[in-house]
Specification:
Length: about 270
Protein backbone atom coordinates (compact mmCIF):
# COMPACT_ATOMS: atom_id res chain seq x y z
CA UNK A 1 0.00 0.00 0.00
CA UNK A 2 2.85 2.37 0.78
CA UNK A 3 4.43 1.62 -2.58
CA UNK A 4 1.11 2.23 -4.32
CA UNK A 5 0.55 5.51 -2.49
CA UNK A 6 4.11 6.66 -3.15
CA UNK A 7 3.85 5.86 -6.88
CA UNK A 8 0.48 7.59 -7.00
CA UNK A 9 1.96 10.72 -5.41
CA UNK A 10 4.83 10.72 -7.92
CA UNK A 11 2.33 10.29 -10.74
CA UNK A 12 0.25 13.31 -9.70
CA UNK A 13 3.37 15.40 -9.09
CA UNK A 14 4.58 14.61 -12.60
CA UNK A 15 1.15 15.47 -14.07
CA UNK A 16 1.05 18.75 -12.12
CA UNK A 17 4.56 19.77 -13.21
CA UNK A 18 3.78 18.97 -16.85
CA UNK A 19 0.44 20.81 -16.92
CA UNK A 20 1.85 23.79 -15.01
CA UNK A 21 4.78 24.03 -17.43
CA UNK A 22 2.60 23.82 -20.56
CA UNK A 23 -0.01 26.26 -19.28
CA UNK A 24 2.72 28.62 -18.12
CA UNK A 25 4.22 28.74 -21.62
CA UNK A 26 0.82 29.22 -23.27
CA UNK A 27 -0.30 32.01 -20.93
CA UNK A 28 3.06 33.75 -21.21
CA UNK A 29 2.78 33.83 -25.01
CA UNK A 30 -0.83 35.05 -24.84
CA UNK A 31 -0.05 37.78 -22.31
CA UNK A 32 3.02 38.91 -24.26
CA UNK A 33 0.94 39.22 -27.44
CA UNK A 34 -1.49 41.49 -25.58
CA UNK A 35 1.03 43.53 -23.60
CA UNK A 36 3.20 46.59 -23.94
CA UNK A 37 6.35 47.43 -21.96
CA UNK A 38 6.24 44.14 -20.02
CA UNK A 39 9.70 43.54 -18.61
CA UNK A 40 9.97 42.75 -14.90
CA UNK A 41 6.46 42.64 -13.41
CA UNK A 42 4.43 39.45 -13.01
CA UNK A 43 1.65 40.79 -15.25
CA UNK A 44 1.57 43.48 -17.94
CA UNK A 45 0.46 46.96 -16.93
CA UNK A 46 -0.73 47.88 -20.42
CA UNK A 47 -2.90 45.63 -22.58
CA UNK A 48 -3.31 46.30 -26.29
CA UNK A 49 -4.30 44.65 -29.59
CA UNK A 50 -1.67 46.67 -31.43
CA UNK A 51 0.52 43.62 -32.10
CA UNK A 52 -2.32 41.69 -33.71
CA UNK A 53 -2.96 44.63 -36.03
CA UNK A 54 0.76 44.83 -36.82
CA UNK A 55 0.91 41.10 -37.52
CA UNK A 56 -2.18 41.18 -39.75
CA UNK A 57 -0.72 43.98 -41.90
CA UNK A 58 2.77 42.45 -42.00
CA UNK A 59 1.51 39.10 -43.30
CA UNK A 60 -1.66 40.06 -45.17
CA UNK A 61 -3.53 37.85 -42.71
CA UNK A 62 -6.61 37.21 -44.90
CA UNK A 63 -4.38 35.86 -47.70
CA UNK A 64 -2.34 33.80 -45.23
CA UNK A 65 -5.45 32.24 -43.67
CA UNK A 66 -7.00 31.68 -47.11
CA UNK A 67 -3.91 29.79 -48.34
CA UNK A 68 -3.77 27.79 -45.12
CA UNK A 69 -7.40 26.71 -45.24
CA UNK A 70 -7.31 25.93 -48.97
CA UNK A 71 -4.28 23.67 -48.42
CA UNK A 72 -5.56 21.85 -45.33
CA UNK A 73 -9.13 21.33 -46.59
CA UNK A 74 -7.95 20.17 -50.02
CA UNK A 75 -5.47 17.76 -48.44
CA UNK A 76 -8.15 16.39 -46.11
CA UNK A 77 -10.70 15.85 -48.90
CA UNK A 78 -8.25 14.25 -51.34
CA UNK A 79 -6.82 12.06 -48.58
CA UNK A 80 -10.31 10.83 -47.72
CA UNK A 81 -11.11 10.06 -51.36
CA UNK A 82 -7.95 7.96 -51.65
CA UNK A 83 -7.62 6.71 -48.08
CA UNK A 84 -11.18 5.45 -47.53
CA UNK A 85 -11.14 2.82 -50.34
CA UNK A 86 -7.62 1.78 -49.31
CA UNK A 87 -8.65 1.40 -45.66
CA UNK A 88 -11.74 -0.59 -46.70
CA UNK A 89 -9.66 -3.01 -48.78
CA UNK A 90 -7.17 -3.53 -45.95
CA UNK A 91 -9.96 -3.99 -43.39
CA UNK A 92 -12.15 -6.36 -45.41
CA UNK A 93 -9.82 -8.48 -47.54
CA UNK A 94 -6.91 -10.79 -46.82
CA UNK A 95 -4.53 -11.07 -49.72
CA UNK A 96 -0.92 -11.87 -50.42
CA UNK A 97 1.64 -9.27 -49.32
CA UNK A 98 -1.04 -7.35 -47.41
CA UNK A 99 1.30 -6.68 -44.47
CA UNK A 100 4.07 -5.66 -46.85
CA UNK A 101 1.81 -3.12 -48.56
CA UNK A 102 0.66 -1.79 -45.19
CA UNK A 103 4.27 -1.37 -44.10
CA UNK A 104 5.17 0.44 -47.32
CA UNK A 105 2.11 2.66 -46.99
CA UNK A 106 3.16 3.74 -43.51
CA UNK A 107 6.78 4.50 -44.42
CA UNK A 108 6.14 8.28 -44.86
CA UNK A 109 4.84 8.37 -41.28
CA UNK A 110 7.84 6.50 -39.87
CA UNK A 111 10.78 8.25 -41.54
CA UNK A 112 11.66 11.93 -41.02
CA UNK A 113 9.91 14.18 -43.58
CA UNK A 114 13.20 15.69 -44.76
CA UNK A 115 14.34 12.23 -45.89
CA UNK A 116 11.90 12.22 -48.79
CA UNK A 117 10.97 15.91 -48.66
CA UNK A 118 14.05 17.20 -50.50
CA UNK A 119 13.72 14.79 -53.49
CA UNK A 120 9.98 15.45 -53.54
CA UNK A 121 10.53 19.21 -53.55
CA UNK A 122 13.11 18.87 -56.34
CA UNK A 123 10.59 16.95 -58.44
CA UNK A 124 7.88 19.56 -57.83
CA UNK A 125 10.26 22.34 -58.82
CA UNK A 126 11.05 20.52 -62.07
CA UNK A 127 7.33 20.17 -62.74
CA UNK A 128 6.88 23.88 -61.93
CA UNK A 129 4.37 23.08 -59.20
CA UNK A 130 6.47 24.35 -56.30
CA UNK A 131 5.68 27.80 -54.82
CA UNK A 132 2.06 27.18 -55.81
CA UNK A 133 -0.81 26.02 -53.63
CA UNK A 134 -1.17 22.91 -55.79
CA UNK A 135 2.45 21.97 -55.06
CA UNK A 136 1.96 22.43 -51.32
CA UNK A 137 -1.14 20.21 -51.47
CA UNK A 138 0.70 17.45 -53.38
CA UNK A 139 3.64 17.53 -50.96
CA UNK A 140 1.39 17.23 -47.90
CA UNK A 141 -0.61 14.36 -49.40
CA UNK A 142 2.40 12.03 -49.11
CA UNK A 143 2.28 11.65 -45.28
CA UNK A 144 -1.41 12.48 -44.81
CA UNK A 145 -2.91 9.69 -46.97
CA UNK A 146 -1.23 6.93 -44.85
CA UNK A 147 -2.37 8.81 -41.74
CA UNK A 148 -6.00 8.75 -42.94
CA UNK A 149 -5.74 5.04 -43.80
CA UNK A 150 -4.35 4.30 -40.35
CA UNK A 151 -7.28 6.11 -38.68
CA UNK A 152 -10.04 4.65 -40.88
CA UNK A 153 -8.71 1.08 -40.80
CA UNK A 154 -9.91 0.26 -37.23
CA UNK A 155 -13.20 2.15 -37.71
CA UNK A 156 -14.12 0.03 -40.74
CA UNK A 157 -12.76 -3.17 -39.19
CA UNK A 158 -15.04 -2.80 -36.15
CA UNK A 159 -18.16 -2.82 -38.36
CA UNK A 160 -19.61 -6.30 -38.68
CA UNK A 161 -19.50 -7.64 -42.25
CA UNK A 162 -22.98 -9.12 -41.75
CA UNK A 163 -24.54 -5.65 -42.21
CA UNK A 164 -23.17 -5.45 -45.74
CA UNK A 165 -24.03 -9.08 -46.45
CA UNK A 166 -27.64 -8.55 -45.33
CA UNK A 167 -27.98 -5.50 -47.58
CA UNK A 168 -26.62 -7.43 -50.57
CA UNK A 169 -28.99 -10.37 -49.88
CA UNK A 170 -31.93 -7.93 -49.85
CA UNK A 171 -30.97 -6.78 -53.33
CA UNK A 172 -28.96 -3.63 -52.65
CA UNK A 173 -26.18 -2.85 -55.10
CA UNK A 174 -22.60 -2.19 -53.95
CA UNK A 175 -23.12 1.55 -54.30
CA UNK A 176 -26.40 1.50 -52.36
CA UNK A 177 -24.84 -0.69 -49.67
CA UNK A 178 -22.01 1.79 -49.32
CA UNK A 179 -24.28 4.86 -49.21
CA UNK A 180 -27.02 3.42 -46.98
CA UNK A 181 -25.08 1.04 -44.70
CA UNK A 182 -21.33 1.50 -44.60
CA UNK A 183 -21.08 5.27 -44.93
CA UNK A 184 -23.45 6.15 -42.03
CA UNK A 185 -21.65 3.69 -39.74
CA UNK A 186 -18.25 5.17 -40.52
CA UNK A 187 -19.24 8.86 -40.30
CA UNK A 188 -17.45 9.31 -36.92
CA UNK A 189 -14.29 7.83 -38.42
CA UNK A 190 -14.55 10.01 -41.52
CA UNK A 191 -14.98 13.19 -39.49
CA UNK A 192 -12.16 12.17 -37.16
CA UNK A 193 -9.80 11.37 -40.04
CA UNK A 194 -10.69 14.63 -41.81
CA UNK A 195 -10.26 16.85 -38.75
CA UNK A 196 -7.07 15.19 -37.54
CA UNK A 197 -5.58 15.33 -41.03
CA UNK A 198 -6.38 19.06 -41.02
CA UNK A 199 -4.60 19.44 -37.67
CA UNK A 200 -1.62 17.44 -38.94
CA UNK A 201 -1.43 19.43 -42.19
CA UNK A 202 -1.53 22.74 -40.32
CA UNK A 203 1.43 21.51 -38.26
CA UNK A 204 3.30 20.07 -41.27
CA UNK A 205 6.27 22.43 -41.43
CA UNK A 206 9.10 20.68 -43.29
CA UNK A 207 7.31 19.73 -46.51
CA UNK A 208 5.38 23.00 -46.71
CA UNK A 209 8.54 25.02 -46.07
CA UNK A 210 10.39 23.27 -48.92
CA UNK A 211 7.76 24.01 -51.60
CA UNK A 212 5.77 27.04 -50.41
CA UNK A 213 5.99 30.45 -52.07
CA UNK A 214 5.01 33.93 -50.87
CA UNK A 215 1.33 33.35 -51.72
CA UNK A 216 1.14 29.66 -50.76
CA UNK A 217 2.76 29.49 -47.34
CA UNK A 218 0.72 28.36 -44.36
CA UNK A 219 0.62 29.87 -40.87
CA UNK A 220 3.34 27.58 -39.50
CA UNK A 221 5.79 28.62 -42.25
CA UNK A 222 4.98 32.31 -41.73
CA UNK A 223 5.60 31.83 -38.01
CA UNK A 224 9.01 30.30 -38.75
CA UNK A 225 9.96 33.21 -41.01
CA UNK A 226 8.94 35.67 -38.30
CA UNK A 227 11.11 33.96 -35.73
CA UNK A 228 14.21 33.13 -37.78
CA UNK A 229 14.26 35.09 -41.07
CA UNK A 230 16.47 38.12 -41.58
CA UNK A 231 15.28 41.39 -40.10
CA UNK A 232 13.95 42.51 -36.74
CA UNK A 233 10.37 41.89 -35.71
CA UNK A 234 8.70 42.67 -32.38
CA UNK A 235 8.51 39.48 -30.29
CA UNK A 236 4.95 40.45 -29.34
CA UNK A 237 3.90 40.29 -33.01
CA UNK A 238 5.51 36.85 -33.33
CA UNK A 239 3.58 35.73 -30.25
CA UNK A 240 0.37 37.15 -31.76
CA UNK A 241 0.80 34.93 -34.83
CA UNK A 242 1.64 32.00 -32.54
CA UNK A 243 -1.66 32.56 -30.71
CA UNK A 244 -3.57 32.54 -34.02
CA UNK A 245 -1.85 29.29 -35.00
CA UNK A 246 -2.58 27.74 -31.59
CA UNK A 247 -6.27 28.69 -31.70
CA UNK A 248 -6.75 27.25 -35.21
CA UNK A 249 -5.04 23.97 -34.32
CA UNK A 250 -6.78 23.47 -30.98
CA UNK A 251 -10.20 24.27 -32.45
CA UNK A 252 -9.94 21.48 -35.02
CA UNK A 253 -8.41 19.08 -32.48
CA UNK A 254 -11.20 19.61 -29.93
CA UNK A 255 -13.84 19.15 -32.62
CA UNK A 256 -12.16 15.88 -33.68
CA UNK A 257 -12.13 14.58 -30.11
CA UNK A 258 -15.89 15.18 -29.95
CA UNK A 259 -16.41 12.48 -32.56
CA UNK A 260 -14.07 9.79 -31.33
CA UNK A 261 -11.90 8.72 -28.44
CA UNK A 262 -8.13 8.47 -29.06
CA UNK A 263 -8.31 4.75 -28.19
CA UNK A 264 -10.31 4.18 -31.40
CA UNK A 265 -7.30 5.20 -33.44
CA UNK A 266 -5.32 2.12 -32.39
CA UNK A 267 -7.97 -0.49 -31.60
CA UNK A 268 -8.40 -3.29 -34.08
CA UNK A 269 -11.32 -5.70 -33.91
CA UNK A 270 -10.76 -9.40 -34.32
Amino acid sequence: MRRIKFSGILYWIAIFVYVFNVLGIIFTVILNSLSKNWYTDWFPKIFTLEWYSYMAKEHDLPQLLFATFVVVISVALISLLIGYPAAYIFARYNFKFKNVLLSLLLVPMLVPPMTYGIPLAAMLYKLRLATRISGVILANLVPIIPYVVLILYPFIEQIDVSYESAARILGASRLRTFVKVLLPLTVPGIFTAALLSIVRTIAMFELTFLVAGPKSQTVIVALYYDAYAAGTRPPQAIDALAVVYFLITMTFLLIALKFASPTQFVYRGK
